[in-house]
Here is the input.
Amino acid sequence: MSTQECALIHLTLFKHSAKSFLAALDEAGIPHGPVHMFSSAPQNSGLVEAIAALSDAMPWNAIAKIVVAWIEARKSREVIIYTEAGESFHAKGYSASEVQKLLRISTNVTVIDTKPVDEQ
Here is the structure.
């Protein structure tokens, strides 16, 4: 029996971020899947995806590099990482190694692109 823990990165994608961010994960070969949430109360309008793996198998470095490259590709993009301690970090300006450390302690990652892909 394995004693490894399962690691989960919970992504909430808003506005025009879903198509391009999920495509970046796909290009890197990082599996992800939708999270279906059911509630009797109104919920946010973001698309929710998750990346799950055994903690030793989670591609932390690859995901961090995708986050940094995705943000740097357009000025309209932002990634906010929320931690277990209740802190939030805007990933813009952070290095991949810094983002990797934050992802390991994240409870949710919000991905936002305020402009459609066909707009600069």
User: Anything to note?
Assistant: The longest strand covers residues 6-15.
